[in-house]
Structures are given as C-alpha cells and as structure tokens.
Design brief:
2 domains, alpha+beta, nine-stranded antiparallel sheet, 392 residues, six-stranded mixed sheet
Amino acid sequence: MNISTTYSMQQDSASAVKDALAQLENSPSLLVVYASVGHNINVVYETLSAEKPGVAIHGGTSCLGAMTQAGFHAADGVGLALMSFEDEAGNYGVGTAEIGADPVAAGVAAIQNAIAASGRFGEPPTLVWITGVPGSEEAVQQGIQSVIGSQVPIAGGSSADNAVAGEWMQFTNQGVTANNLVVTAMYPSTKISFAFHSGYWPTETVGKVTKANGRTLAEIDGRPAADVYNEWTNGQIEDHVRGGNVLADSTMFPLGRKVGEYAGFANYQLIHPAGVDEAGALNTFADVEEGTELILMNGSETSLISRAGRVAQTALNAGHLDPEDISGALVIYCAGCMLAVQDKMDAVASEIKTALGAKPFLGTFTFGEQGCFIGGDNYHGNLMISVVIFGK
C-alpha cells in the first residue's frame, strides 16, 4: 500500500488538477478528490480523466477547500486536494446512483455497482467510503447496509458548497452530478482502523422528543422545540424562536443522542439545528425520532481544534497501530466546525499531522458526516469527525 496526498492552490481548475497530479509519489489505481465549488467541477473531472485515463475516481465538493498533512488549502473559496492509492494487492471499485425519490434504492444500486467495479463479487468490502447529498443520508445508508450488512464500516461525508446554497456536486469516471450517491467499495491489502467522534461534551440538560417528523423537531417535553432550545442555551436563538436561520448560532450547542458506549465512555450522535419555522419547530441536519432523549452538547474553539488530532489518535489506538505502521488516512471534518474555527484550520491540520506522524492524509469539509463508532454501528451525524486509517 502506497498512499500519496497532494494539493494545489492554483485558481484555474485545469492547472490545479495538473499541479496536484504532478506532485504524486505513486501510480494510482484510485483517486479520491475533493474540490470547492469555487472550481469548475466539470473541468476538474475532464482534466482528471484526460491525465489519468482508466484510474477510478471518487470525487465530491468540499466547503471552501480541503486539508492535508501540509495544512489547510483554501483561498477565496477555492481549493483542491487529492489522495492517490497504489495497492496492487487490493481492490477498489467506485459506484454511483442518482438518489432521486428513492434514496434507499440509490444506496442499493450504488454499492452493487461499486462491488461489481471492484471485481470482488459476493464478498463484502472491508470499508465503504461514501460521498452523498445532504438530506438523505440515513436512507442511503439503509440501502447500502441491506446489501452488505451492518458489520462493514461506512465512513465519509455529504458533499458541500461554500454557502449552503445547494451547489454541491459529486463526480466519478461517469461524469459530474448534483444529486448522486458515490461509494467506493474498498478491499485494501492492509488492515484499516477507524474512529467517529466530535469535539463536544454532554451537559446535564436533557429532554425527550415528543413530536417530530424526519428532520423537523417540533416539540421537546411537549413544548415548541425552539422555545426549549432557546432556554437551554440561555437565549442563543432569542431572535429566531418563530423563524430564522440558526445554523451559526447553534454550532457550539448541538443536540446529542447517546448511541452506546465503548470502554466505559458514551458515544454521541450529534444533531445540528439549522433553522426555525413559524411554529417554533427546529429544522435539523439529521433525522429525529419521537421518544428520543436529547442532550444539550457544548463545544468550544479549543475543543474543535484539538479534537481532530485526538480522533486520529483514537483510530490508531483502536487498531493497535503506531504512526510508523500506517500508509495514510482519510478524514471527514464538519464544515460547520471548520467555519467556526476557520482562521485556526492550519492548527487543526497540525493536530492530525502530529497524531499520524506526518503520514499523508486527506480531509474534506462536509454538510453531514458518516462514520462507525468503535465497538458500535454506522451512523450519520452533524458537527462530527470521522477518521479512517490505512495500514502499511
């Protein structure tokens, strides 16, 4: 296994791709590519295809830019980075399917296409790497798991743009799309290890969901959810309890759901309130079910900076690996967290670099994070960090 990660800050999209590819230190069989919507994604795809014909491509858009072991790569909303896998003894297949009106069926089709492309028919992958679309993550995951079961880790994130304007895109060898699920069925020749966490901690404030439908959280403890949330956060959304965007106001105060424990510590799936409607319901970036106990979580700039490195260290520990034992890592870091500490993102990248011993890693900034808790199951969450490590 030989992994190489490169980036380019060139503003011209074709030049950026050529610049990044020229820096590669291996001969790729798979390219994982993340670029901001400040680039012309069609040109990114066309240049990749022309420069590396026949190489499998898994691509998506990332908020503002990307990060690698060299730092945070974004300027004026433009950035591009890629990871190249050279693994002659492994197999990697990229599949895609339009999500449309049936995201469960899209999950089924995409993973079936990916396994077919890998050539490993009838064999579940070691890992599924996913790039989806905000809004349907739980359903596409359900579709994938109906094919491969719940024991295969699923990790990745939802494609993003720079302003939550619906401009996110995905791309593969089949072209550029706006509403497709992209998955790579990975059968690496080396072991993997992973972790899925956040930079937040639970408070003692707890309530029960008494009315909800999908991503509309209407009531907590029998009262309008926005009123309850505003009280919990000491007036954090005071000006928007009957309508408005609360995405930035709620970034440091997401809601959490306990989803098991590992080594005596609780695992929390985070739910990010995005807006409030006229009835006082919270609109969220993850599904909420009636009867769920929600916990108010709390974060800080310091925790968002340091936690990424700790998650990388946790992934190492879970696999009983040292930095010298690994080839590289894929990292998902929530775009909301990135925007909250944007001027400190080089420090975030440095924390990951320190944990991984300067080995190559590629990080993207997503509008939804997917990962597998150690000793647990696959989940979709918000404001989270997902790290997958590949051994030597």
